[in-house]
Write a structure and sequence with these properties.
By secondary structure, the chain is α/β, with parallel strands linked by helices. About 35% of the residues lie in helices and about 35% in strands. The chain is built from three helices and eight strands, in the order αββββαββββα. It has helices at about 5-25, 90-105, 170-195, and strands spanning about 30-35, 50-55, 65-75, 75-85, 105-110, 120-135, 140-150, 155-165. Strands 1, 2, 3, 4, 5, 6, 7 and 8 form an eight-stranded mixed sheet that branches. A hairpin with a 2-residue loop joins strand 3 (about 65-75) and strand 4 (about 75-85). Helix 2 packs across helix 3 (about 170-195). The longest helix has 25 residues, at about 170-195. It is elongated. About 30% of the residues are buried. The model is unreliable at about 1-25 (pLDDT under 50).
Amino acid sequence: MSLSASVLRGLAALSCAALVAGCASSSVPQALYDLTAPSSFPSAGKQVRGQVLVAEPRALSSLNTNLIAVKPTPTTLSYFDRVAWTDRLPRLLQARMVEALQNSGRFRAVGVPGDGILVNYQVQTDIRDFELDTRAGTVYIALMVRVLDDTTGRVVAQQLFEGRAPATASAPGKAIEAFDAALDQVLVEVAVWVAARM
C-alpha cells in the first residue's frame, strides 16, 4: 500500500470517529429530571408487621429507558428532546415507591432485592403508561400493582392505579412538575392500598 493511500485511510477513519463522537455528544441530555416520593399520607391506616420487598417494575422497551415519553397520538410515542430522567424509569419508580411505602409509616421494613430483609410480601408493578398525552394536555400514569405473599407465592390482590395532571410539551420543566404531581397521587393510593392488603 502506498503512503498516500495509507494516509487517506487514516484520515477517513478519523473523520468517521469524529462523526460518531459528534452524534454521541449531541444525544447527551442537557438536563436530568428526578421524581419525588410523597411525604403526606392519611393518618389512619393499618400498620403492617411484615417486611416488604419492592421488585423493579416491568415495562415495555419504550418505557424501559431514561427518556421522557410524549404521546402525540394514541398509537405514537416520542420523547422530549435533550432531557431525560436521572435513571431508567423502572429503577426510578422502584426507588420512589420504596420511599413512599417507608414515608407512609405503615410498614415494619421496606427494601429492594439485595437488601437482605426477611421478605413476607412482594410488591410487583407493571408500568402501563407514563407519558405526557399532548392531545389531552395531561400527564397520564397507569400502574398495575400486585401484592404477592412471598411464603406461598399467591397473589393476594392486584389493582390498576391511575394519576393525571395538566401539562403541555412546550416547557419540559413544567411537564416534570405534572409528572411528579400525578405520581404523588398514585403512590399515596398505592401505599394505603398495599398496607390494607397485608
